[in-house]
Fold these 2 entries.
Entry 1:
Amino acid sequence: MTNRPNSITLIPIAGIPEIGVGDDLVKIVSDAATAGGLTIENSDVLVFAQKIVSKSEGRIVDLNDVEPSNFARTLSTEVSKDPRLVEVILSETTKIIKMDQRKPEKGRLIVETRGGVISANAGVDASNVTGGDKVTLLPVDSDESARALARGFKERLGTEIAIIITDTVGRPWRDGLVDIAIGCAGIKALKDYRGEKDSKGFELNATVMAIADEIASAAGLLMEKADSVPVVIVRGYEFEKGGTGATELIRDPEEDLFR
Amino acid sequence: MTNRPNSITLIPIAGIPEIGVGDDLVKIVSDAATAGGLTIENSDVLVFAQKIVSKSEGRIVDLNDVEPSNFARTLSTEVSKDPRLVEVILSETTKIIKMDQRKPEKGRLIVETRGGVISANAGVDASNVTGGDKVTLLPVDSDESARALARGFKERLGTEIAIIITDTVGRPWRDGLVDIAIGCAGIKALKDYRGEKDSKGFELNATVMAIADEIASAAGLLMEKADSVPVVIVRGYEFEKGGTGATELIRDPEEDLFR
């Protein structure tokens, strides 16, 4: 029983109001936690759904202000999307990974975003934004957003916590979406078990776990799509501090067999 | 705060001994829980690492008993693996999805297994099996293994629980491994939010979440690679009962852009 891990608790922070541009997420989340009888403690991981971070940072585009390019118009007919939406997606895209034009009504556009994450529609999301023609974009630099939040909580509450910002993505080969980490601060996104021995004394195979993605998925269980719970406390997980952010999770394209 | 979810607790069951062929996992896990002061309760999800299920089912091959085919020999030099291991991998494979021969010393063999899961080496694993030349295979039918476990706990403890069997896999585009669900019983692997309204009253975009994979990843945080914690209780997650198993998570190849 050496090294027996403790239980982990996933605690939803409810009562977070609709977020607007410039809102102080640190204050709002701290107040919501207090109102719900919760404390934010040292060594907690606070997991944020991307949407509220994007809204607070003003990453919202009104499609009525968008003039689609000819390329966006052509592409939009092939994947059966609003050409203005395609224009916004392309503005967030560094590379088109895959397009599905076989069934335009279900057309998919899988792209690499400026942050390196590969996902459908570059994370541009039309759901749950006030005003039917508004969409949210991913934060410009989700790791920097996470670091700013970690600093904010340190200043406000004096607590050293880790921050993970998540997005909901599809995957090759598997149905259904999962949450992954697009921004991290104060936690190593990868955990390297190489060189450690297993319980029988054998050296483990090369194994590096994507801890931040696993935490994102765990928290995702509580982030109802109705968005009433955009922040979850993960308590009791023993993680390694430091790291350089969720960019550690982006596979080197040279090493990637599927792009 | 209508519909505010409860906290979820991830509880490791420690003290599970090395599992051998024919061992009664239901008894062993129940006893280990009791010894650790834990109870297994109605509506718990019990998450099993694939390895102990495979061992109890005798899904172990001694490479010394394997005679590699010519094809396995050829392939083994291209990906720099033991030809006997390649023979075993091929015996579990319905389709080779991708081979990486660019750097033989890091050669990868991504295949579709008989169960439909796509992963490296068909889930054949050489780590943590007693005897250096033994490897484990995935259960023949992980959904059936999960159903048998659920029945066993119902009979032994009278509790209605869900079972998820997990494997650790790599992914395109992202570094690090995560745990996914390869077998399920008593829980719908997918949760369909389509038609529901978001918190502002807008209808949600088509969103189907891979709940079973998210639970697998959550439990994975506690399944140290040293394998001392191969079973985790997930308590407090409100899930839909029923479903037909983890095969629901396998995307229809016709709908898949990456195969």
Entry 2:
Amino acid sequence: MRVGLLNATGYTGAEVIRFASGHPEFVLVGVTARSQAGQTLGAVLPWVRASPRPAYADLVLTPELNGSFDLIVSCLPHEVSAEKLAPFIASGVPAVDVSPDFRLQDLAEHRRWYGEHHAPQHRGAAEYGLTETHRAALRHTKLVANPGCHAITAELALVPALAAGLVAPNVIVDSKTGVSGAGRSAALEFGFSEVNENARPYKVAAHRHGPEIAQELTRAAGRRVEVTFVPTLVPMSRGILTTAYATLRDGVTPAAVAHAYHETYDGEQFVHVVDEPPQTKWTTGTNHCFVSCVVDEANRVLVAMAATDNLGKGAAGGALQNANVMLGLDESAGLGVPPSYP
Amino acid sequence: MRVGLLNATGYTGAEVIRFASGHPEFVLVGVTARSQAGQTLGAVLPWVRASPRPAYADLVLTPELNGSFDLIVSCLPHEVSAEKLAPFIASGVPAVDVSPDFRLQDLAEHRRWYGEHHAPQHRGAAEYGLTETHRAALRHTKLVANPGCHAITAELALVPALAAGLVAPNVIVDSKTGVSGAGRSAALEFGFSEVNENARPYKVAAHRHGPEIAQELTRAAGRRVEVTFVPTLVPMSRGILTTAYATLRDGVTPAAVAHAYHETYDGEQFVHVVDEPPQTKWTTGTNHCFVSCVVDEANRVLVAMAATDNLGKGAAGGALQNANVMLGLDESAGLGVPPSYP
Amino acid sequence: MRVGLLNATGYTGAEVIRFASGHPEFVLVGVTARSQAGQTLGAVLPWVRASPRPAYADLVLTPELNGSFDLIVSCLPHEVSAEKLAPFIASGVPAVDVSPDFRLQDLAEHRRWYGEHHAPQHRGAAEYGLTETHRAALRHTKLVANPGCHAITAELALVPALAAGLVAPNVIVDSKTGVSGAGRSAALEFGFSEVNENARPYKVAAHRHGPEIAQELTRAAGRRVEVTFVPTLVPMSRGILTTAYATLRDGVTPAAVAHAYHETYDGEQFVHVVDEPPQTKWTTGTNHCFVSCVVDEANRVLVAMAATDNLGKGAAGGALQNANVMLGLDESAGLGVPPSYP
Amino acid sequence: MRVGLLNATGYTGAEVIRFASGHPEFVLVGVTARSQAGQTLGAVLPWVRASPRPAYADLVLTPELNGSFDLIVSCLPHEVSAEKLAPFIASGVPAVDVSPDFRLQDLAEHRRWYGEHHAPQHRGAAEYGLTETHRAALRHTKLVANPGCHAITAELALVPALAAGLVAPNVIVDSKTGVSGAGRSAALEFGFSEVNENARPYKVAAHRHGPEIAQELTRAAGRRVEVTFVPTLVPMSRGILTTAYATLRDGVTPAAVAHAYHETYDGEQFVHVVDEPPQTKWTTGTNHCFVSCVVDEANRVLVAMAATDNLGKGAAGGALQNANVMLGLDESAGLGVPPSYP
């Protein structure tokens, strides 16, 4: 299958290449970049020569995609992504949008957080791409809105509890994240000397993934859920650890919590319910997520934790998982990359 | 003043030496260690030669303190600390205990978390050593129970809101910590390859600093406060960032929150209320703390954040600050070490 | 093919599992450990559930290997490795020894650096396992002595220059290494707080890989080569960067140097000669090596640089590459893991 | 004494503030910045509030220095530095130039590496500011050319051996450096995700500090010394570890080497000759340097190692040490900051 990748040289685009280099069906035939157009992929990302498809290093980056494609993956920033995807969507080419352009169902909310939408005519065609909670719909769409990295991790942590009605609809999501989520670009605040030996919250209760999490938790709960979302940058390249807090409803036992989580995830190949607290390092470079719960009886609080790789399950891995489902392939195709431990 | 330091070669002991090397009144005359007894301080900690008192490198580590002292600082582990301090306390030598032995007022709670107390006769003599909230009492004691590193940071974050009655008495404390708090000892789980590129919660809602935080927040609030305390290890050597969450009482405005925090801390030289989210790097190597609040109106949640150096304000710095107050010295003596940025 | 792995829970053993989980022919049927015997692999290494063979998590660690095997890989420490491998070697089971027990050809040198040899009767059967320089011999052996991680990287950097007689036989090897090479064990000196923000040389001109490098460079040069080998620990989990220095013979041009390196490696799939200085990050988690040379004309010095992952090409990756060659399989089987960038 | 600081908000400028905040004589009265002009120092560097002179946080950054000064420290980039310092030099104000503008004595060399000189009329007035080797001259100058960070470390490692004629005049300098030396600016290549878990050489045998090292080693040796200088970026914020290699002259013994180093440095308060390999962490945040030598008898190579903090002794610390000497103050004034260990 001929795959085109929009914005191949950011961290998410690079991670799509990384997974795609081991995909049994996908062949990368077009890769775009803006400032590096004209260079080969190998000139910008020399490690591609050490991937399972070293020939990808010879692909020339172009400003636009030309030719025919069986799948488009867009790692462009918002606004641009919808704009560049629009012609492909219009002509029926299956597409996965890793940008936030098609995530929020409420157009007013989208405008508030992201500004004007550049392809509003296609909003109705998109399905939200958390495979585990939207798998059925994803089988019948041609446009996937891939979730945000914080959102994926928070939703995997909290959906079982809210869907089963175990907690009150006011939740707190404290998300520790590595730096690669900020993208591959020059910025003082993400310089090594600024990030190393530092922990700092940012966009406190004001981050764009907040409304996205609320939308999906509301969908799971069947009623309005309020979310206080606080991301914190910690000195890692990869990894998101979400610690979510919610007030347990009266009478809910630890056993009931465990039952809900196991029932939701025991059939999933990429989500693992474990007894000990999850570690991001268990997921590095993969499409996997580890989830664990603790009940604080004295305070009647559920502590739900989830660990992912923000570039893996949190972006490129999830994108390929969604593409596999959308295209009727084996859901795990290309995703058999072992974690990088230690 | 002649100072004796129990367990000088752990990270907290080393940090006491670091601050003491610039203290105008203190002279370190006795330093103990267990397995390294007989060696010089410089053999174990070569960097002492690069401190303002390089002669400290020639101090010989002994198993016990001998001679007379004007101040004892204990960085021993719990149980041993109370036991070794007891004779000094009995003979009236001012002491700061950096261990948890004298922190919890409720003996049953102490036994639950730490086991049998080894100097119960002295429990009544101890004052809890968060200088900012216990300064008056510290002026009249001879035994300071220095707080835990998570506890100091959490209390500085939440005391103003609870003391002013702005929030409900059920709080969540999510604390991101560097590794040095685990001490200077051989342990696989704190090895570089395990900690680097990893975030992991530990002792979820089951950490010993939980009851300590609850004790002090209860004291501040004047009523029972329940705390869900979750520490997370992140890949830093130094630093604690606490993000605390509490439900705002009806009618409480952001202005009321800001007022409470400024009123509490504007006269303090080591606690700074700031508008932007605090960063641990601003405090590295110092006795300072930065505090900031955000109000999430939609969810009616107060997000209170505090950043410290777990070895500085969170341990050795706070210990010297308390010693200064107890001994009637300038509260900031020896604490004029600039932060190590970047 | 039935594979048995001795000492499965150290970092090198874990990396063998990591690569083996994607190998088309190998099936891991026996895994040993000492202190964790009786536990499952998944209990010790939870991330195995996120590998392409999650069922490996249910393998029970045993003190010894039982049953029949088509391949044994030993990640035991020296002395023990030779001892435990001896019966398998004796009965003709193909084996790869990742320990140094069969690396040094001179028994006196072996005794000097490693002590008494525990299976001297099998020393003659072993072939040194740097595939690129010993491929022909490896096809006809049943016992591979896998090289040391520093040695692999240094030899890949210098063999072409010495084999072509471009430099004098006195070389300097300055090797920067991540910490995982020290193994997965409790040790203060490899604790995060000791390693982070630190660079420190160790075993200066006195490291066991020194004589191994000298042996192989001597073999390549056809005359005695002296090596000054200095390893430096830098704050990374994975990666070795070797910078080697040698005096150019009169008349040797940069073009002659480039020719020698390209001629040696252009047919190799795991070694890449590049123009810019190599980065360890390009190799993270893989069996690849990047090599680059600079000629300092003024000082007539060749600077030869090589970057690998010490656990990949430097240990477990190289071990599987050797096993593939020894067993007549595709040399790259199981080694198609893309690098983990960033 | 009134001190003006040019370019206060880069890492070197910030480090000057850090040391100056504890200097007994210096009062910072002017601080310049380009893009942040108009802001307070505390707005750009919030940690200044946690320094011994929190009032410095209220200093307003200006584009130029105005008023009278007893000392100017310039942390401007080259070319600009000479240009901005020229009027102060002309009017006799003592100045320390942390830029490379006055380091190279040979104007042709300066032009080759740095381009046209912007204040050639003042070149003759400058003294090279490695205090330990130029102290006498520094007492009688009004313009100090502060050395480069790699150069300082390399010179401290090699000067004793070359001055005593113990080694041949062809040396290799392999320098491992933290990232802060690259300055405080937005650049992809110094982003956390690029630097973390990576080691990479840069400007191999083509770095500007090479000719500077050669100049000073030549001066020490009394004959032309050739230097192959290779810097490598490792994932640290602070610290330089230099490993230097030189061929021992016939008959030179380890004892002769030790004697030369101790004789050179035993009277110095900021340079420490030690037996074990030096670690950068021993120097973090200070003006100190640790030096150690190993003789490789078999290869007749001297391995001379030195560890500093690139921002401390390698830049701002050395600058204040030089200023103290130039102004007749206690050489160690303001430099009594203990290292930040761990």
